[in-house]
Amino acid sequence: MASIIVEYGFEEPMSDEALSRMAKQLDSCLEIRNGTWVRSSLSSDRKRMICEFEAPDAESVREALRSARQTFERVWPAQVFAVESYPELLAKLRDIRSKSEAAQIPGSATE
Asked: pLDDT tens digits for 88-111?
């Protein structure tokens, strides 16, 4: 399986309902092509999105998108590097997150 990235651009900010509808339409089209969604990153203004899929190849994802009648900007295969593969960086991330969470708790030591 390959990691495939899809870039989207939207004229109007995407609502949660529209995103859910897109996902449902695409899911069955991906499934018959042996692909699946992994994760998405939606811009703060909700007008751009990058999605990661696992599929046999980029063309399988393109075909699924076209079958689901979804407009996209680009589809490309990628090498994915994640913090989970780097123990030192994962420890640093966990430390930063715990400090951030502690800062949000009333009465914590950081106040």
From this structure: 999 999 999 999 888 887 765 554
- Number of other CB atoms surrounding residue 63 within 10 Å: 18
In CATH terms, the fold of domain 2-80 is: Alpha-Beta Plaits (3.30.70)
Distance (Å, whole) CA 39 – CA 18: 17
Which tokens go with 109? Answer: 């030591």
**Cα separation of 4 and 14, whole Å?**
22
pLDDT for 48 equals 98
Is the distance from CB of 34 to CB of 60 less than 8 angstroms?
Answer: yes
Q: Where are the domains of the chain?
A: 2-80, 82-111
At 111 the pLDDT is: 47
